[in-house]
Amino acid sequence: EISQKVKYLGRTFADDGSLTEEVARRIRAGWAAFNAIRRELLQSPQKTRIRLLTTTVIPAMTYGCETWTSKEADTKRLQRAVSNMFEIAGCDPPDMEKQVLRRKLKWAGHVSRMKYDRWAKIVSEWDPRGSARPRGRPPKRWADDIKDSIKIFIHNEALRGNLGHGRRRIGILEARRAWSTVGRDRVTWRSLVRSIQDGN
């Protein structure tokens, strides 16, 4: 049987790799979580409101995002929905692009340290051969965001002058752009994730 989309483990997969349907489902899940706590939310102090939103709504909207290959339009749709919810609650919304990227980087770090017989490791590093490359710009890949984050991290570390103790690690990052190699260094990878958290 051939299907254009299928739901598996709580996520909708499309045959063209599009996230349109999945993002729409995540937004609906976010509003469902928001409406479930709406009364208590609006009666709570702001600090509690922020905590409620970040522990119920945000996880509902980012479920499975570690495996997304999201486009800018997808992230903007998530951001609009989150901004509307946080505005109703009277709170400043988080940056959903960073929320998704941070979760993706954490997962990538786990995958890079897995044994080579794990399926997550195999499919993440699989490079298909023998198929002709289509014309035009190649579609965005899952690892593209990770590679871009590594490049930005190297640049920012260099600007800060943090090349003392980290010179060897920065050298590894520059010499080997493979994210699966970089992720094996827990210290460096945690610094990378933290740089997204801090908004750098």
UniProtKB/TrEMBL annotation:
Lineage top rank: taxon: Eukaryota
The name this protein goes by in its record: Reverse transcriptase
Source organism of the structure: Caenorhabditis japonica
